[in-house]
Amino acid sequence: MIIIYKKNHNISRKxxxxxxxxxxxxxHKSGYQAYLVGGGVRDLIIGKTPKDFDLxxxxxxFEIQKLFKNCRLIGRRFQIAHIMFKKETIEVSTFRGxxxxxxxxxxxxxxxxxxGMLLRDNIFGQIEEDAERRDLTINTxxxxxxxxxxxxxxxxxxxxxxxxxxxxxxxxTRYREDPVRMLRVIRFSxxxxxxxxxxxxKAIPKLAKLISHVPSARLYNELNKLLQxxxxxxxxxxxxxxxxxxxxxxxxxxxYNKNINILINSLLINVLKENDKRYKKKKKIHPExxxxxxxxxxxxxxxxxxxxxxxxxxxxxxxxxLKLILKKASFILSIPKQIIYSIKEIWKVINFITYNSxxxxxxxxxxxxxxxxxxIYIIKKKIEKNKIFxxxx
Length: 393
Ligand code: ATP
Ligand code: MG
Prior knowledge:
Blueprint: E1 2-4, H1 18-29, E2 34-37, H2 39-46, E3 54-57, H3 61-67, E4 71-74, E5 80-84, E6 89-94, H4 102-108, E7 110-112, E8 118-121, H5 127-133, E9 141-143, E10 150-152, H6 156-162, E11 164-165, H7 171-177, H8 180-191, E12 195-196, H9 198-207, H10 216-227, H11 232-241, H12 245-248, H13 250-253, H14 258-280, H15 287-310, H16 314-330, H17 337-355, H18 362-365, H19 370-384, H20 387-390
Helix pairs in contact: 7-9, 8-10, 8-11, 14-15, 14-19, 15-16, 15-17, 17-19
The protein binds adenosine-5'-triphosphate and magnesium ion.
Protein backbone atom coordinates (compact mmCIF):
# COMPACT_ATOMS: atom_id res chain seq x y z
CA MET A 1 0.00 0.00 0.00
CA ILE A 2 1.20 3.50 -0.82
CA ILE A 3 0.15 6.61 1.11
CA ILE A 4 0.13 9.85 -0.83
CA TYR A 5 0.40 12.73 1.60
CA LYS A 6 -1.32 16.09 1.32
CA LYS A 7 1.65 17.90 -0.20
CA ASN A 8 1.85 15.40 -3.08
CA HIS A 9 -1.66 15.64 -4.49
CA ASN A 10 -4.18 18.25 -5.58
CA ILE A 11 -7.34 17.25 -3.66
CA SER A 12 -8.63 19.83 -1.23
CA ARG A 13 -11.64 19.57 1.05
CA LYS A 14 -13.17 22.58 -0.72
CA UNK A 15 -13.88 20.50 -3.80
CA UNK A 16 -15.78 17.84 -1.86
CA UNK A 17 -19.48 17.94 -1.07
CA UNK A 18 -20.11 19.45 2.38
CA UNK A 19 -22.57 16.70 3.15
CA UNK A 20 -19.98 14.01 2.37
CA UNK A 21 -17.48 15.74 4.66
CA UNK A 22 -20.06 15.97 7.45
CA UNK A 23 -20.73 12.23 7.21
CA UNK A 24 -17.02 11.40 7.17
CA UNK A 25 -16.33 13.50 10.27
CA UNK A 26 -19.25 12.01 12.18
CA UNK A 27 -18.14 8.47 11.37
CA HIS A 28 -14.60 9.28 12.53
CA LYS A 29 -15.87 10.89 15.73
CA SER A 30 -17.83 7.73 16.46
CA GLY A 31 -14.65 5.69 16.19
CA TYR A 32 -15.03 4.28 12.67
CA GLN A 33 -12.71 4.41 9.70
CA ALA A 34 -14.25 6.30 6.80
CA TYR A 35 -13.00 7.43 3.41
CA LEU A 36 -14.08 9.12 0.23
CA VAL A 37 -13.59 6.52 -2.50
CA GLY A 38 -14.43 5.69 -6.11
CA GLY A 39 -15.28 8.21 -8.81
CA GLY A 40 -15.09 11.16 -6.39
CA VAL A 41 -11.37 10.68 -5.69
CA ARG A 42 -10.57 9.59 -9.26
CA ASP A 43 -12.21 12.65 -10.83
CA LEU A 44 -10.70 15.13 -8.35
CA ILE A 45 -7.20 13.82 -9.11
CA ILE A 46 -7.84 14.07 -12.85
CA GLY A 47 -9.26 17.58 -12.40
CA LYS A 48 -12.87 16.76 -13.32
CA THR A 49 -15.95 17.59 -11.30
CA PRO A 50 -17.19 14.36 -9.68
CA LYS A 51 -20.72 13.21 -10.52
CA ASP A 52 -21.26 11.96 -6.99
CA PHE A 53 -19.33 11.25 -3.79
CA ASP A 54 -19.17 7.66 -2.60
CA LEU A 55 -17.96 6.82 0.89
CA UNK A 56 -16.60 3.62 2.41
CA UNK A 57 -16.38 2.73 6.10
CA UNK A 58 -15.90 -0.14 8.52
CA UNK A 59 -19.23 0.73 10.18
CA UNK A 60 -21.91 -1.82 9.23
CA UNK A 61 -25.08 -0.62 7.45
CA PHE A 62 -26.95 -1.02 10.72
CA GLU A 63 -24.36 1.05 12.61
CA ILE A 64 -24.51 3.74 9.92
CA GLN A 65 -28.27 3.84 10.21
CA LYS A 66 -28.00 4.41 13.95
CA LEU A 67 -25.78 7.46 13.39
CA PHE A 68 -27.87 9.17 10.71
CA LYS A 69 -31.57 9.89 10.92
CA ASN A 70 -31.74 10.59 7.19
CA CYS A 71 -30.39 7.13 6.28
CA ARG A 72 -32.05 4.41 4.24
CA LEU A 73 -30.60 0.97 3.62
CA ILE A 74 -30.91 -0.26 0.08
CA GLY A 75 -29.75 -3.06 -2.20
CA ARG A 76 -29.98 -6.79 -2.28
CA ARG A 77 -26.70 -7.53 -3.97
CA PHE A 78 -24.73 -5.35 -1.58
CA GLN A 79 -26.44 -3.60 1.28
CA ILE A 80 -25.58 0.08 1.08
CA ALA A 81 -26.60 3.08 3.19
CA HIS A 82 -28.08 6.06 1.39
CA ILE A 83 -27.86 9.23 3.40
CA MET A 84 -30.35 11.68 2.01
CA PHE A 85 -30.01 15.44 1.92
CA LYS A 86 -32.21 18.03 0.23
CA LYS A 87 -30.22 18.15 -2.97
CA GLU A 88 -28.08 15.04 -2.89
CA THR A 89 -27.87 11.48 -1.69
CA ILE A 90 -24.54 10.17 -0.46
CA GLU A 91 -23.84 6.47 -0.78
CA VAL A 92 -21.99 4.93 2.14
CA SER A 93 -20.85 1.33 1.74
CA THR A 94 -19.34 -0.90 4.36
CA PHE A 95 -15.91 -2.37 3.49
CA ARG A 96 -16.56 -5.59 1.65
CA GLY A 97 -14.50 -8.66 2.44
CA UNK A 98 -13.54 -12.02 1.03
CA UNK A 99 -15.09 -15.09 2.48
CA UNK A 100 -12.59 -17.54 3.87
CA UNK A 101 -15.12 -19.77 5.57
CA UNK A 102 -16.54 -20.83 2.24
CA UNK A 103 -18.75 -23.57 3.58
CA UNK A 104 -20.92 -21.29 5.67
CA UNK A 105 -20.66 -18.06 3.84
CA UNK A 106 -21.46 -19.36 0.39
CA UNK A 107 -24.83 -20.40 1.66
CA UNK A 108 -25.71 -17.28 3.55
CA UNK A 109 -24.11 -14.25 2.00
CA UNK A 110 -22.14 -15.00 -1.08
CA UNK A 111 -24.36 -16.65 -3.63
CA UNK A 112 -23.05 -17.42 -7.10
CA UNK A 113 -24.85 -18.71 -10.16
CA UNK A 114 -23.35 -21.65 -12.01
CA UNK A 115 -21.84 -19.12 -14.44
CA GLY A 116 -19.81 -17.59 -11.62
CA MET A 117 -21.99 -14.50 -11.33
CA LEU A 118 -22.37 -13.09 -7.83
CA LEU A 119 -25.98 -12.76 -6.71
CA ARG A 120 -25.23 -11.51 -3.25
CA ASP A 121 -21.95 -10.28 -1.87
CA ASN A 122 -22.57 -8.99 1.57
CA ILE A 123 -19.53 -9.98 3.57
CA PHE A 124 -17.94 -7.22 5.59
CA GLY A 125 -14.17 -6.95 5.76
CA GLN A 126 -11.08 -4.83 6.14
CA ILE A 127 -10.14 -1.93 3.88
CA GLU A 128 -7.48 -4.08 2.11
CA GLU A 129 -10.14 -6.61 1.12
CA ASP A 130 -12.54 -3.86 0.12
CA ALA A 131 -9.88 -2.59 -2.28
CA GLU A 132 -9.62 -6.00 -3.95
CA ARG A 133 -13.41 -6.22 -4.37
CA ARG A 134 -13.64 -2.96 -6.32
CA ASP A 135 -13.61 -2.95 -10.13
CA LEU A 136 -10.79 -0.77 -11.50
CA THR A 137 -7.50 0.38 -10.04
CA ILE A 138 -8.37 4.01 -10.80
CA ASN A 139 -11.61 3.62 -8.79
CA THR A 140 -9.83 2.29 -5.72
CA UNK A 141 -8.25 5.27 -4.04
CA UNK A 142 -9.26 6.09 -0.46
CA UNK A 143 -9.13 9.73 0.59
CA UNK A 144 -9.01 10.54 4.29
CA UNK A 145 -10.64 13.92 5.04
CA UNK A 146 -8.96 14.16 8.44
CA UNK A 147 -5.30 14.17 7.39
CA UNK A 148 -5.95 14.65 3.64
CA UNK A 149 -3.92 11.59 2.66
CA UNK A 150 -4.77 9.06 -0.09
CA UNK A 151 -4.36 5.30 0.36
CA UNK A 152 -3.58 3.38 -2.80
CA UNK A 153 -3.71 -0.44 -2.46
CA UNK A 154 -3.77 -1.51 -6.13
CA UNK A 155 -1.68 1.02 -8.08
CA UNK A 156 -4.52 3.39 -8.96
CA UNK A 157 -2.37 6.54 -8.91
CA UNK A 158 0.14 5.09 -11.37
CA UNK A 159 -2.67 4.01 -13.69
CA UNK A 160 -4.33 7.45 -13.56
CA UNK A 161 -0.99 9.01 -14.51
CA UNK A 162 -0.45 6.51 -17.32
CA UNK A 163 -4.13 6.72 -18.38
CA UNK A 164 -4.77 3.01 -18.07
CA UNK A 165 -8.05 1.25 -17.31
CA UNK A 166 -7.09 -1.91 -15.42
CA UNK A 167 -9.40 -4.38 -13.75
CA UNK A 168 -8.28 -5.53 -10.28
CA UNK A 169 -7.49 -9.26 -10.10
CA UNK A 170 -8.04 -11.87 -12.79
CA UNK A 171 -10.19 -10.22 -15.49
CA UNK A 172 -12.05 -13.37 -16.46
CA THR A 173 -13.12 -14.11 -12.86
CA ARG A 174 -14.07 -10.50 -12.24
CA TYR A 175 -16.20 -10.27 -15.40
CA ARG A 176 -17.86 -13.58 -14.57
CA GLU A 177 -18.72 -12.31 -11.08
CA ASP A 178 -20.32 -9.22 -12.56
CA PRO A 179 -20.54 -8.84 -16.36
CA VAL A 180 -21.54 -5.17 -16.01
CA ARG A 181 -17.83 -4.54 -15.34
CA MET A 182 -17.28 -4.98 -19.09
CA LEU A 183 -19.55 -1.99 -19.72
CA ARG A 184 -17.88 0.01 -16.96
CA VAL A 185 -14.46 -0.63 -18.49
CA ILE A 186 -15.73 0.71 -21.81
CA ARG A 187 -17.52 3.65 -20.19
CA PHE A 188 -14.47 4.88 -18.28
CA SER A 189 -12.13 4.33 -21.21
CA UNK A 190 -14.24 6.60 -23.43
CA UNK A 191 -15.25 9.11 -20.74
CA UNK A 192 -11.71 9.57 -19.46
CA UNK A 193 -9.94 8.90 -22.78
CA UNK A 194 -7.87 6.14 -21.25
CA UNK A 195 -6.45 2.97 -22.78
CA UNK A 196 -7.74 -0.43 -21.70
CA UNK A 197 -4.94 -2.63 -20.33
CA UNK A 198 -4.22 -5.70 -22.49
CA UNK A 199 -5.62 -8.46 -20.25
CA UNK A 200 -8.56 -6.32 -19.16
CA UNK A 201 -9.44 -5.90 -22.86
CA LYS A 202 -8.65 -9.44 -24.02
CA ALA A 203 -11.22 -11.12 -21.77
CA ILE A 204 -14.17 -9.01 -22.97
CA PRO A 205 -14.96 -10.55 -26.39
CA LYS A 206 -14.56 -13.99 -24.87
CA LEU A 207 -17.13 -13.30 -22.14
CA ALA A 208 -19.35 -10.79 -23.97
CA LYS A 209 -22.25 -13.27 -23.99
CA LEU A 210 -22.52 -13.02 -20.20
CA ILE A 211 -24.07 -9.58 -20.65
CA SER A 212 -27.34 -11.28 -21.52
CA HIS A 213 -27.51 -12.60 -17.93
CA VAL A 214 -27.50 -9.11 -16.38
CA PRO A 215 -30.92 -8.21 -14.92
CA SER A 216 -32.77 -6.14 -17.53
CA ALA A 217 -33.34 -3.07 -15.32
CA ARG A 218 -29.65 -2.84 -14.40
CA LEU A 219 -28.63 -3.24 -18.04
CA TYR A 220 -31.01 -0.45 -19.06
CA ASN A 221 -29.48 1.89 -16.45
CA GLU A 222 -25.90 1.02 -17.37
CA LEU A 223 -26.59 1.53 -21.06
CA ASN A 224 -28.06 4.95 -20.41
CA LYS A 225 -24.87 5.90 -18.54
CA LEU A 226 -22.73 4.45 -21.30
CA LEU A 227 -24.57 5.79 -24.34
CA GLN A 228 -26.12 9.03 -23.14
CA UNK A 229 -23.45 10.88 -21.19
CA UNK A 230 -21.60 12.65 -23.95
CA UNK A 231 -19.55 9.83 -25.48
CA UNK A 232 -22.24 7.63 -26.98
CA UNK A 233 -20.71 7.28 -30.42
CA UNK A 234 -17.26 6.39 -29.05
CA UNK A 235 -18.91 3.87 -26.74
CA UNK A 236 -20.87 2.38 -29.67
CA UNK A 237 -17.62 1.83 -31.59
CA UNK A 238 -16.02 0.12 -28.61
CA UNK A 239 -19.09 -2.05 -27.96
CA UNK A 240 -18.83 -3.19 -31.56
CA UNK A 241 -15.08 -3.79 -31.36
CA UNK A 242 -15.47 -5.92 -28.23
CA UNK A 243 -18.38 -7.98 -29.66
CA UNK A 244 -20.81 -6.57 -27.09
CA UNK A 245 -23.09 -4.66 -29.43
CA UNK A 246 -24.78 -7.69 -30.95
CA UNK A 247 -25.34 -9.24 -27.54
CA UNK A 248 -26.83 -6.10 -26.02
CA UNK A 249 -28.96 -5.37 -29.07
CA UNK A 250 -29.47 -9.00 -30.10
CA UNK A 251 -32.93 -7.71 -30.74
CA UNK A 252 -33.04 -5.94 -33.19
CA UNK A 253 -29.58 -6.59 -34.65
CA UNK A 254 -29.76 -10.36 -35.07
CA UNK A 255 -33.27 -10.49 -36.48
CA TYR A 256 -32.95 -8.69 -39.78
CA ASN A 257 -31.03 -8.93 -43.04
CA LYS A 258 -27.85 -7.00 -43.80
CA ASN A 259 -29.50 -3.98 -45.41
CA ILE A 260 -31.98 -3.49 -42.61
CA ASN A 261 -29.15 -3.83 -40.13
CA ILE A 262 -27.30 -1.04 -41.92
CA LEU A 263 -30.41 1.11 -41.58
CA ILE A 264 -30.80 0.35 -37.87
CA ASN A 265 -27.11 1.06 -37.24
CA SER A 266 -27.12 4.28 -39.28
CA LEU A 267 -30.06 5.68 -37.36
CA LEU A 268 -28.49 4.62 -34.06
CA ILE A 269 -25.12 6.22 -34.91
CA ASN A 270 -26.73 9.49 -35.98
CA VAL A 271 -28.88 9.69 -32.89
CA LEU A 272 -25.88 8.97 -30.65
CA LYS A 273 -23.90 11.75 -32.35
CA GLU A 274 -26.83 14.13 -31.92
CA ASN A 275 -27.09 13.23 -28.21
CA ASP A 276 -23.34 13.72 -27.73
CA LYS A 277 -23.63 17.23 -29.17
CA ARG A 278 -26.60 18.02 -26.91
CA TYR A 279 -24.76 16.71 -23.84
CA LYS A 280 -21.74 18.87 -24.58
CA LYS A 281 -24.01 21.92 -24.89
CA LYS A 282 -25.45 20.93 -21.46
CA LYS A 283 -28.90 20.37 -23.00
CA LYS A 284 -31.27 17.85 -21.49
CA ILE A 285 -31.01 14.28 -22.80
CA HIS A 286 -34.28 12.41 -23.25
CA PRO A 287 -33.65 8.64 -23.16
CA GLU A 288 -36.72 7.96 -25.32
CA UNK A 289 -34.98 9.71 -28.23
CA UNK A 290 -32.35 6.97 -28.39
CA UNK A 291 -34.60 4.01 -27.58
CA UNK A 292 -37.33 4.99 -30.02
CA UNK A 293 -34.70 5.36 -32.76
CA UNK A 294 -33.09 1.96 -32.13
CA UNK A 295 -36.45 0.26 -32.37
CA UNK A 296 -37.95 2.40 -35.13
CA UNK A 297 -37.09 0.22 -38.14
CA UNK A 298 -38.14 -3.08 -36.54
CA UNK A 299 -41.43 -1.42 -35.57
CA UNK A 300 -41.95 0.15 -38.99
CA UNK A 301 -41.02 -2.91 -41.06
CA UNK A 302 -43.18 -5.09 -38.86
CA UNK A 303 -46.12 -2.70 -39.21
CA UNK A 304 -45.95 -2.88 -43.01
CA UNK A 305 -45.71 -6.67 -42.85
CA UNK A 306 -48.78 -6.93 -40.59
CA UNK A 307 -50.69 -4.42 -42.74
CA UNK A 308 -50.06 -6.46 -45.89
CA UNK A 309 -50.58 -9.90 -44.36
CA UNK A 310 -53.73 -9.10 -42.45
CA UNK A 311 -55.02 -6.61 -45.01
CA UNK A 312 -55.78 -4.06 -42.28
CA UNK A 313 -55.09 -0.32 -42.18
CA UNK A 314 -51.74 1.18 -41.11
CA UNK A 315 -53.01 2.45 -37.75
CA UNK A 316 -54.36 -0.94 -36.66
CA UNK A 317 -51.24 -2.70 -37.91
CA UNK A 318 -49.11 -0.14 -36.04
CA UNK A 319 -50.89 -0.88 -32.75
CA UNK A 320 -50.21 -4.60 -33.08
CA UNK A 321 -46.64 -4.03 -34.20
CA LEU A 322 -45.62 -1.64 -31.44
CA LYS A 323 -46.79 -4.02 -28.71
CA LEU A 324 -44.85 -6.88 -30.28
CA ILE A 325 -41.63 -4.94 -30.80
CA LEU A 326 -41.62 -3.41 -27.32
CA LYS A 327 -42.23 -6.84 -25.83
CA LYS A 328 -39.31 -8.33 -27.77
CA ALA A 329 -37.04 -5.50 -26.64
CA SER A 330 -38.09 -5.98 -23.02
CA PHE A 331 -36.59 -9.48 -22.83
CA ILE A 332 -33.14 -7.93 -22.58
CA LEU A 333 -33.80 -4.35 -21.52
CA SER A 334 -36.39 -3.25 -19.07
CA ILE A 335 -37.40 0.16 -20.36
CA PRO A 336 -39.44 2.08 -17.75
CA LYS A 337 -43.15 2.58 -18.39
CA GLN A 338 -42.84 6.34 -18.76
CA ILE A 339 -40.20 5.93 -21.47
CA ILE A 340 -42.31 3.29 -23.27
CA TYR A 341 -45.17 5.78 -23.32
CA SER A 342 -42.90 8.44 -24.81
CA ILE A 343 -41.54 6.01 -27.43
CA LYS A 344 -45.11 5.33 -28.59
CA GLU A 345 -45.78 9.07 -28.80
CA ILE A 346 -42.60 9.61 -30.85
CA TRP A 347 -43.54 6.85 -33.29
CA LYS A 348 -47.05 8.25 -33.59
CA VAL A 349 -45.70 11.70 -34.45
CA ILE A 350 -43.12 10.29 -36.92
CA ASN A 351 -45.90 8.40 -38.69
CA PHE A 352 -47.93 11.57 -38.89
CA ILE A 353 -45.08 13.73 -40.20
CA THR A 354 -44.09 11.10 -42.77
CA TYR A 355 -47.49 11.29 -44.41
CA ASN A 356 -48.15 15.02 -43.85
CA SER A 357 -44.67 16.52 -43.98
CA UNK A 358 -45.70 19.64 -45.95
CA UNK A 359 -48.51 20.61 -43.69
CA UNK A 360 -47.90 19.69 -40.07
CA UNK A 361 -50.86 20.83 -37.98
CA UNK A 362 -50.31 22.93 -34.85
CA UNK A 363 -51.73 20.14 -32.69
CA UNK A 364 -48.90 17.81 -33.73
CA UNK A 365 -46.28 20.54 -33.31
CA UNK A 366 -47.50 21.01 -29.75
CA UNK A 367 -47.05 17.33 -28.92
CA UNK A 368 -44.48 17.03 -26.08
CA UNK A 369 -42.47 14.59 -28.16
CA UNK A 370 -42.58 16.58 -31.42
CA UNK A 371 -38.99 17.77 -31.16
CA UNK A 372 -37.54 14.26 -30.79
CA UNK A 373 -39.85 12.81 -33.43
CA UNK A 374 -39.01 15.52 -35.96
CA UNK A 375 -35.30 15.05 -35.33
CA ILE A 376 -35.54 11.31 -35.99
CA TYR A 377 -37.67 11.97 -39.06
CA ILE A 378 -35.02 14.27 -40.54
CA ILE A 379 -32.18 11.82 -39.82
CA LYS A 380 -34.25 8.97 -41.28
CA LYS A 381 -34.97 10.93 -44.43
CA LYS A 382 -31.27 11.51 -45.02
CA ILE A 383 -30.41 7.85 -44.49
CA GLU A 384 -33.21 6.61 -46.70
CA LYS A 385 -32.04 8.72 -49.66
CA ASN A 386 -29.47 6.00 -50.26
CA LYS A 387 -30.56 3.88 -53.26
CA ILE A 388 -30.17 0.51 -51.51
CA PHE A 389 -32.82 1.45 -49.01
CA UNK A 390 -35.36 2.87 -51.42
CA UNK A 391 -36.40 -0.68 -52.24
CA UNK A 392 -36.92 -1.65 -48.62
CA UNK A 393 -38.66 1.42 -47.26
P1 ATP B 1 -19.32 7.66 -11.64
O1 ATP B 1 -20.10 7.85 -10.36
O2 ATP B 1 -18.56 8.84 -12.09
O3 ATP B 1 -20.15 7.05 -12.72
P2 ATP B 1 -17.92 5.70 -10.06
O4 ATP B 1 -16.62 4.97 -10.27
O5 ATP B 1 -18.01 6.53 -8.82
O6 ATP B 1 -18.18 6.55 -11.35
P3 ATP B 1 -20.19 4.30 -9.03
O7 ATP B 1 -21.17 3.46 -9.76
O8 ATP B 1 -20.64 5.54 -8.34
O9 ATP B 1 -19.05 4.63 -10.08
O10 ATP B 1 -19.47 3.33 -8.00
C1 ATP B 1 -18.64 3.79 -6.93
C2 ATP B 1 -17.47 2.85 -6.72
O11 ATP B 1 -17.95 1.53 -6.38
C3 ATP B 1 -16.62 2.61 -7.96
O12 ATP B 1 -15.67 3.62 -8.13
C4 ATP B 1 -15.98 1.28 -7.64
O13 ATP B 1 -14.91 1.42 -6.73
C5 ATP B 1 -17.12 0.53 -6.97
N1 ATP B 1 -17.93 -0.23 -7.95
C6 ATP B 1 -18.98 0.22 -8.67
N2 ATP B 1 -19.48 -0.75 -9.46
C7 ATP B 1 -18.72 -1.84 -9.22
C8 ATP B 1 -18.74 -3.17 -9.74
N3 ATP B 1 -19.63 -3.55 -10.64
N4 ATP B 1 -17.80 -4.03 -9.26
C9 ATP B 1 -16.89 -3.65 -8.32
N5 ATP B 1 -16.83 -2.42 -7.82
C10 ATP B 1 -17.72 -1.52 -8.24
MG1 MG C 1 -19.76 7.52 -8.16
